[in-house]
Specification:
Elements lengths: L1 H18 L9 H12 L3 E5 L9 E6 L3 E5 L5 H16 L13 H4 L8 E6 L6 H20 L10 H4 L13
Parallel strand pairs: 1-3
Antiparallel strand pairs: 2-3, 2-4
Helix pairs in contact: 1-5, 2-3, 3-5
Protein name: ParH-like protein
C-alpha cells in the first residue's frame, strides 16, 4: 500500500512537471535544452563521448559554471533525443541538487576534470534508483506530449511517426 501511494505521488509530480513545460515547436532536443539552460540561467553543453558498453549512453555532469550532457555518438536520432531529454529531466527534477553519488565511469569519461569541480554526475545505469525512475518517466512523458501535441514530421525526419507509418498531420481528437 505504501508503494502504491509512493507510485501515485511520483506520477502526479512528474505529470505536473511535464505538462507545465514550455516545449519548442517543432520539438528538437537541442532547442529544448536551450530553453532549459535559459530558464536555469546557466549553459547546457552536449558533448559526444565514445564509451565502452560498461558506461551509460548518457551522463549528466553538473559543475559550478555549466551543465554537460555526455552522449554516445553514433546512436540513432531517436535514441539521442531520448538520451538528451532524459538527462534534462534530471535537471528538471532537481537531481543535480541531491548528494553526489558514486557513479562508475566518471573518471574514465572526464580524466582531466577535478573531482572538486564536478558537483553532480548522473548516469543511466540503474533504473531501480528513484532518481533514474523519475527522470525516465519524465522524459517519456515529455516525448509523449511532443507526439500528442505536435505534427508528426515526414519520412525524411527519421522520427517515430514516420517509422510506424503515421500520416503527416495529427488526427483531430474527439471531444467528449
Amino acid at each position: 500500500m505504501l508503494a502504491d501511494r509512493s507510485h501515485r505521488r511520483l506520477w502526479r509530480r512528474v505529470r505536473a512537471l511535464s505538462e507545465g513545460l514550455e516545449l519548442p515547436d517543432p520539438f528538437e532536443a537541442e532547442t529544448f535544452l536551450g530553453l532549459l539552460a535559459e530558464r536555469r540561467g546557466r549553459p547546457i553543453e552536449v558533448l559526444p563521448v565514445a564509451v565502452d558498453a560498461a558506461i551509460p549512453c548518457g551522463v549528466l555532469v553538473t559543475t559550478d559554471r555549466a551543465d554537460y550532457i555526455l552522449c554516445t555518438p553514433g546512436t540513432s536520432a531517436l535514441h539521442r533525443q531520448h538520451i538528451l531529454v532524459h538527462e534534462a529531466a534530471h535537471l528538471l527534477c532537481g537531481h543535480d541538487r541531491l548528494p553526489t553519488p558514486e557513479t562508475p565511469g566518471v573518471r574514465a569519461l572526464l580524466p582531466g576534470l577535478s573531482p572538486d569541480l564536478v558537483r553532480r554526475v548522473l548516469g543511466r545505469t540503474v533504473y531501480a534508483e528513484p532518481a533514474e525512475r523519475e527522470a525516465e518517466l519524465l522524459a517519456s512523458l515529455i516525448l509523449h506530449r511532443v507526439l500528442r501535441e505536435g505534427p508528426v514530421p515526414g519520412p525524411d525526419h527519421g522520427r517515430a511517426g514516420s517509422l510506424v507509418g503515421a500520416s503527416s498531420r495529427r488526427p483531430e481528437r474527439s471531444r467528449v
